[in-house]
Amino acid sequence: MSQRLRSERVHTGLYWFLGFEFFVGFATKFWPGSTFFGPAYSEKFAEWGFHPNMRFVVGGLELIAAVLLVLPRRESRFLGAAMLVLVLTGAVTTHLIDDAPFWQGTSAPIHLVIMIVVALANWPADWRDVVPPWGSSALAARGGMALGDR
Questions:
Q1: Which of 32, 33, 71, 123 could share a disulfide with 76, CB 3.0–4.6 Å?
Q2: Integer Cα distance of 141 and 150 in angstroms
Q3: Assign residue 143 a region: left if phi > 0, alpha if psi is -120 to 50, beta otherwise?
Q4: What is the three-class DSSP state of 35?
Q5: In a 3-state reduction of DSSP, which class is residue 9?
Q6: 3-state secondary structure of 21
Q7: Under DSSP, is residue 138 helix (H, G, I), strand (E, B) or coil?
């Protein structure tokens, strides 16, 4: 097995592990009762000063990001990591203000640093690689019309 193939497999395994972690985060946010992390997230979000249903927004973002992390395209991994950087920045801020237990106070910052590294490692060469262009040439290739073609 070549060194490059081994390295690709390690990277892919890392992305799947991170995706699994955030999928578990999604599942626990949507779980109605207490979880193995403690009380129900509806109670935790209320204690933190958020509406209890905000957990669905955060959990949904974690699910989308987890799926994006396991897709093999660099652009999707960048988008997933960038989304998680935003979510984890909110988590770190919330845990700092709330005086969270040690494991919560360290888990979010560690994952934030990991997601920053993942986002930087998958940084796109050109933004047009991440967001598809909606100009006339892209729509014409799909058989559609651009706004100015009417």
A1: 71
A2: 17
A3: left
A4: strand
A5: helix
A6: helix
A7: helix
